[in-house]
């Protein structure tokens, strides 16, 4: 059998990637943001139903017992424990792993740039992301649109006042090929509309945009606040460039009890979907109970932003070796 041993990315791209890494480190050094490294393996894992983690067994020498560890999907939990220890502003360039994700824009193993800024509000963090995107990657300035505003502009619906059935009918009308008996919750229908209708239109307009103030049900690990219309919203943003999600930022939730409840709710959803429950990260909860500083944080897909900067069409073309070529 002949094996194709060649890299997935061309040598020029690999060299350019190395320069981007150096430029990112310079960007943060100029702002006194400390680079950290945290473990890839953890005894806990994200509970979110849309996330599936890789597992690995630890077997001590001379023992037949096995302890399951999880490859991290993000360095978030460990970095927040450092924040609770008063380390200050930090960033990490991490290899992360998500089981089942593979395609033009997805890979089971990829690189994430994640950073946390106790000194910055969420709006100030968006400013910093804007600076990074322009200074390091030479991409366009980013506009800002609220989640409610973008749905009203493109779909003529108010996501905070319309019914579940109205959202469903909007999706069935505007997205070809959806079966009429498809069963999704409210957020599932909204996600379909965002990914299949709104994102392509943003891409066609070549409009890099922060979408902020998501429905409170999509808070994930962000705080809940009131918007200007007194709706409960998640104090978070997502960055879309070329119609592709690039980054996800939060005004970080600091309440350990509320976070535990969200983890528990997620595990209930997983069981309803015939997915295994995930072990909860009680180290993180203990760190939050000890007092984590008010901060904003963001995770940015490093491979995806390189794709945009170099006008590449597949994630494999900016990685030295693609997953199925490893």
From TrEMBL:
GO molecular-function terms, A-Z: ATP binding; lysine-tRNA ligase activity; tRNA binding
A Pfam family annotated for this UniProt entry: tRNA-synt_2
Signal peptide per UniProt: none
Keyword Ligase tagged: yes
Residue ranges of every copy of the Aminoacyl-transfer RNA synthetases class-II family profile domain listed in the record: 24-326
GO CC terms: cytosol
Swiss-Prot/TrEMBL keywords: ATP-binding, Ligase, Nucleotide-binding
One GO term of the biological process aspect: lysyl-tRNA aminoacylation
Quaternary structure (record): Homodimer.
Protein name (Swiss-Prot/TrEMBL): Aminoacyl-transfer RNA synthetases class-II family profile domain-containing protein
Source organism (scientific name): marine sediment metagenome
